[in-house]
Amino acid sequence: MRKFVSLPTKIMGLLMAFLLIASASLTYLWVNKNNQDFYVQQQTVREQDKKQFDLIRDLLRTRVEFWFESFVHFQANYADNIDATAFFFEHEFDYLQLNWQINDLWLFNSKLDLRFTTSRTEKNYILNDIEQVINTQSSVSHIRCVQECQQQISMPILSSSGELVVLSVSSSLMEALAAVNRSTFAKLAVLGPENASLNAVELQNLIIKPPISFANREFMQKILTALPKDLPLSRMLDSGYRLALDSNVYLLNLLPIDPHLENPIYLMFVHDISESSMAHNQYQEQVLSTSIIAVVFCVIALFLLTWRIRRRLLLIAEQLPLLAQKKYQEFRTHKSVKSWLFSDEIELLQDSANLLSEELESLDQKIEQNTRELENIAMYDRLTGLPNRNMLNHQLKKLLAIMKRESNKLTVMFFDFDKFRKINDTHGHDVGDAFLVNAALRIRGCLRDSDMLFRFGADEFVVAFLENKHSEGAPFLATKLIESFREPIAVDELLFYTSSSIGIASSVDSSILMDDLVRQSDMAMYASKDAGGNKYSTFNDLMQKAVIRKVELENEVRDALEKGEFSFALQPQVEIATGKLFGFEALIRWNHPERGFVPPDEFIPLIENTGNMLKIGYWGLNKAFEILQQLDELGLSDLKIAVNLSASQFLDPDLLPFLREQIKAFNRNPSQIELELTERTVVADIEQTLETMRQLKAMGFIFSIDDFGTGYSSLAYLKQMPVDIIKIDRSFVSGMSDNNADMQIVSSTIAMVQKLGMQVVAEGVETCAQMKLLQSLSCEIGQGYFIARPIPESELYQMLSEKLQLGIWDKLDKLARAT
User: Fold this and answer.
1) What is the distance, to the nearest Å, from the Cα of residue 770 to the centroid of all Cα atoms in its chain?
2) What's the burial of 327, exposed, middle or buried (CB within 10 Å: 0-12/13-18/19+)?
3) What pLDDT score does 262 carry?
4) Beta partners for 536?
5) Weakly modelled stretches of the chain, pLDDT under 50
6) Is the omega angle on the peptide bond into residue 792 within 30 degrees of 0, that is, cis?
7) Is the dihedral of CA 619, 621, 626, 631 positive or negative?
8) What domains can be seen in the chain, in order of their start residue?
9) How far out from the chain centre does Cα 294 lie?
């Protein structure tokens, strides 16, 4: 069972979820925007650091360049040539060291010859700078850290005599760092790689380079030690780093001093941003606190708003189950709470529920009355008043329980009329219903008081009773029932003679399923029908096996279609007067790979009402077109082939489209295909049959009625049907030589059919005498063993060349000439 959650709780939960999501989203956006602003502020500081350092370095460089150029040019005594200039720097070097923080000085001529220097060591990078100055005719400035970080400035100077002099000076960075410190308020340190031979410089490899004070060095070393070991140098160069150390927060910006050098030197700015960081964190805490307070306030407000609604809904929830318990009066007196000022949806719901209770109370009373009537309808047949199939199931359960308790035998008898459908077809359903009512009374009159009679459906009745294990009352009762229907049943002024078939199934096993017992009696009843009807049969295992055999045979037929095991045997039809070959009747044959030839009478009745019958029928029609095509190749282009159609196939909606496709595919005259129907097929659905026949007739097909005279309804519809050929059943033809009645039937049938403009085919002609007699009666066409047995298709074409002489069947040639 699912957990109960009240509607106000769901509403409040949804609103709370919405508030939480909205609050979290806004808070996140707010905090994120604040972080972005703080980050932008730090990047601004970084940009300012870089600008200040570049500005101050360039100012100092410009000042040095300007001073030396001005000094040399304004001192005329020393500007005449390079020797005079060198003399001047040698005597003024102490002044330059003291006032301009010049560490060393080098003077070169245009041929890169050193004319004067204050340095005691040779430095290769000086020559590189001098060469660059001469090539570019402009000054060059680099910051290098060997023992101490210095700014190296190399500049061209033109003497009064026009001689090019290159001056290179190195000065301490202390003045520049002090100026940057004063402008940025940041602590500074120059960092460089500990080993100049390193290929890849990482943050962990950088050390502090002089000049730097002892106190500042100690602080900077502490900063470097506190940096994460995995902090990449690229991140420090791109965006700096915020470091929390000793309750303070520092912003570290790392800038390359001179990116043109092979071993880069970096200047690290350390800003104390503790106050701004604290303000930033306090601001975010205020934002989060405000968001939480707002959400809590909204939750409390929602709870207060929904609490009364929840209370009123719970009262209605407590009240509504009373309707299911049919406590209508208690429901109407149940406590309810109304809104303070105005009516609302809950109050309308309460009023509707009260109205519903009144309607339900009235409806419940009607349902109780109708239920009793429906139970009677559900359990009893409305026509005969007998218990129906539902009551049969109910009573069989009770009888099985009694049988288990008393160790009796339960017997079920399945009763069915043999020709009840004929009554409905010839006299209508009203007369058929009246017949069933009278038949039910007659059956009831044959039973004992303890026997139970049920109408199972249509003309089927079931009798059920308990008897002693050793009693054999069922056969006696079945015989009594069969004998009772030897007398006709009167309906109005009509008398109906009918017979019945009865199936008996008994069991002493209380665990048997009632459906199995009814099914067994039903199988026994069909066994009686198959044996000719008007008798009873007792269920046995052979009947079960027969049913299983039917299922197996249906499966084998399906496989036979797929494997091509079916074929046609064609029985010739000839003109009796001339002996000329008229056509063939196509008779299906099944050559089973294991059991050999399987007669059509064995498998056709079992599959007659299944989909396999339709498949066989369409196979046969297609095969008939193929055979006609083969006959054309032999020069026999005017013959006909008769193909039998089952009732299910003739009424199949796919029949007409299929035949149209065959006509188109084979380019065949439809009049060469004779569609053979039985009387049963004709009367199965007369209106649909007539419509289908008219459409097929319009396409050019011809029709024949097979086994004429053995049915019961064809004469009533014969005039309406577009039939071309009537086939007289073999039972009349075989007896007409010895039986005058059969002779009269054949003679009358031939005369009647010919007057209707149809042809007559006599089936089962087996003797010369029958052939001559049919000839005397002007019968047009005959077929039978006297003419030829059915010929397998594989032998047909060879046999035709032997049997036909100018289109005349050889066995009838002499008979035709004698006539």
Assistant:
1) 69
2) middle
3) 64
4) 502
5) 76, 712-713
6) no
7) positive
8) 186-272 (3.30.450), 321-377 (no CATH), 381-539 (3.30.70.270), 551-818 (3.20.20.450)
9) 48
